[in-house]
Automatic annotation (TrEMBL):
Lineage top rank: taxon: Bacteria
Protein name: Succinylglutamate desuccinylase/aspartoacylase
Cofactor section: Zn(2+)
Matching Pfam families: AstE_AspA_cat
GO molecular function: hydrolase activity, acting on ester bonds; metal ion binding
Stored InterPro entries: AstE_AspA_cat, N-alpha-Ac-DABA_deacetylase
Keyword annotations: Hydrolase, Metal-binding, Zinc
Membrane-spanning ranges: none
SUPFAM superfamilies: Zn-dependent exopeptidases
Domain Succinylglutamate desuccinylase/Aspartoacylase catalytic residue range list: 30-171
Length: 311
């Protein structure tokens, strides 16, 4: 393994910000793994750190197959991590909406452009990402429907679900989308947590990437075979909304099976403490996403349900 600077952001007042990458093995550009692009993605940063630790160990024992190079970039945005801001502090821009970048653009456009030059051309691209709505997911692999996506390859991660999504205009600036349209098989791996550490799902994410690299013949790693994933299209998920604002009291978690009529959550009056609304399951199914903040506003999506699926 050797470490190198992928891109540098010059600063007139403080130290320059260096985006670093860790290369394992030599030869064909086999796989590139990218960590957080946002400052609150601490779980994603932690997963990357554990992956670098494990790949370092595997390289020492000769477990990276000849003529395969793996690049890991643990974070693109340590500046926002340092000040605990989700987006770039100067203009609140989102690096993961600015790919493939612009060398003559604003700072975050130049970061996206510099990084994309380093990560393009790999056979497989894996990103640890988070969702724009705060909440928890079932661990899954997510892909844009660009015509280049492969659910068969995504299944090889061994996570319980693979989700495909028809891209909206703002999705065309994501790394996942740009990777795909430029010839890389791209996957985004989601775990339940974002700004906190969930050790169990972090280990699951690391294992899923190592399992995938093994099945692609890039490394030698003996691990559990994982799940045969259920394929879910995002537009088939049933959104469940609140009808009032207040303090949110969730009763069910992602991954749980629910029946029609089950009480999923309660909304409490923030002044008088009385339950003013109950969130009722409108269908049988598996909870795929759950809101996790203590407050909700009216018409906020608090759950997404995979309808009529059972454990």
């Amino acid at each position: 393994m050797f470490q190198e600077i992928i891109h540098t952001v010059k600063s007139p007042y403080r130290d320059d910000m260096h985006i670093v990458g860790f290369r394992f093995g030599k030869g064909e550009k086999a796989a590139c793994i990218v960590g957080p692009t946002r400052g609150n993605e601490i779980q994603q940063l932690y997963i990357c750190s554990q992956l670098i630790k494990e790949l370092t160990r595997l390289e020492k024992i000769g477990a990276i197959v000849n003529n395969n190079e793996i690049l890991v970039i643990p974070t693109l945005n340590q500046s926002s991590i340092n000040i605990e801001k989700r987006f770039w502090a100067m203009d609140k821009s989102d690096i993961n909406r600015l790919f493939p970048g612009d060398d003559s653009g604003e700072t975050t456009e130049r970061i996206a452009g510099g990084v994309f030059k380093a990560v393009e051309g790999y056979n497989f691209g894996i990103q640890f990402a988070s969702f724009h709505t705060p909440g928890e997911f079932i661990p899954h692999v997510r892909m844009m429907e660009t015509g280049h996506e492969s659910t068969s390859l995504a299944n090889l991660f061994g996570l319980p679900y693979v989700l495909t999504k028809k891209p909206h205009p703002f999705d065309t600036g994501t790394l996942n989308y740009c990777w795909q349209v430029n010839g890389t098989n791209a996957f985004s791996v989601y775990t339940p947590a974002t700004s906190s550490i969930d050790e169990t799902s972090a280990r699951q994410a690391v294992s899923s990437v190592l399992r995938f690299l093994t099945r692609m013949g890039i490394i030698k790693y003996n691990c559990h075979s994982g799940y045969i994933a259920s394929i879910v299209e995002e537009e088939t998920l049933m959104p469940i909304k609140t009808d009032v604002s207040g303090i949110y009291r969730p009763l069910r978690k992602p991954g749980e099976e629910v029946k029609f009529g089950d009480v999923l959550a309660e909304v409490v009056d923030p002044i008088e403490g009385e339950v003013i609304s109950q969130i009722i399951a409108p269908s049988d199914g598996i909870i795929f996403f759950a809101h996790s903040k203590p407050l909700v506003i009216q018409n906020c999506i608090v759950y997404k349900l995979i309808r009529r699926l059972h454990e």
